Amino acid sequence: MMNAETPVSIIVRTHGNRMALLKTALASLVEQTHEAVQIVVVEDGSEHAEPHVTNLASTTGRSLIFQSLPKSGKVKAGNAGLAVANGKYLGFLDDDDQLLPDHVATLASALDDRPEIAAAYGQAWEIPTRLTSFAPLDENHARRRPAGRDPFSKLALMFRNYLPIQSVLFRRTLYESNGGFDEQLDDLEDWDLWLRYCADHDFLSVP
């Protein structure tokens, strides 16, 4: 098993009645080939997901934590997840995204092999989606297109956020040194985070 000895925490932010989306996102985490994955679910403004998270923990043997916040917004929800995550490597998966089964293993292996690299990222598929119903879930998907394929460049990142949030795995030391999301922001919090995290460090693109 690749890198099972390296603990990884993935933070999942959710809100409102989005259980159908969240269940799919969490299923993609349960199916990771990397076994040492802690799944941190932070629900903003409600507790709809707690029974499902508790059931997943008991039936899959995966490490899952559920945290509910008073309605605070996605930025504070992300920081709440970072505060309780205990992995050596950290990442995010929002409730409308999914990871391929070897995502965590591949990026954790890259970080294990390259201790001078602060974060690693892989290619993502962006799928424009029109959501017509949450319950039952009814989605119409357009043709998928690749994202996150560019080699790492601090200069390029200053002009365009080409790193999808779910595609990045970063060392916990970045969070400990630079903090989490800027809670003054309402959007683009991940772009700001990557710019702060790469100011004195390099990221690695993993094809």
Structure report:
By secondary structure, the protein is of the alpha/beta class. The chain is 32% helix and 26% strand. The protein contains seven helices and eleven strands. The strands form three sheets. Strands 3-2-1-4-10-5-11 form a seven-stranded mixed sheet, with helices on both faces. A two-stranded antiparallel sheet has the order 6-9. The protein has a two-stranded antiparallel ribbon with strand order 7-8. A hairpin with a 4-residue loop joins strand 7 (129-133) and strand 8 (138-141). The mean pLDDT is 90.
Helix and strand arrangement:
Blueprint: E1 8-15, H1 19-30, E2 37-44, H2 50-60, E3 63-69, H3 74-84, E4 89-92, H4 103-113, E5 119-122, E6 124-126, E7 129-133, E8 138-141, E9 145-147, H5 154-159, E10 168-171, H6 172-178, H7 189-197, E11 203-206
Parallel strand pairs: 1-2, 1-4, 2-3, 5-11
Antiparallel strand pairs: 4-10, 5-10, 6-9, 7-8
